[in-house]
Amino acid sequence: MRSLDRGDFNQDIKKRIESVIKDYHLIDKEDRIAVALSGGKDSVLTLYALQELKNKLDFELLAISVDEGIGGYREDGLRLAREHSLKLGIELVEVSLKDEMSLTLDQAAKFYQTACVPCGVFRRYLLNRAAHKLSADKLATGHNLDDEVQSFLMSFARADTRRFNKFGPKLDRIHPKMVPRIKPLWMILEKEVGIWAVLNDIEVHMAECPYAYTSFRSNLKNYLNGLEEKRPGTKRNILNSFQKTFRFDRSEKTIKLYECERCGEPSSISLCKACEMKEKIEKELK
Ligand code: SF4
Question: How far is the CA of 214 from the centre of ligand 1 (A)?
Answer without folding.
Answer: 9
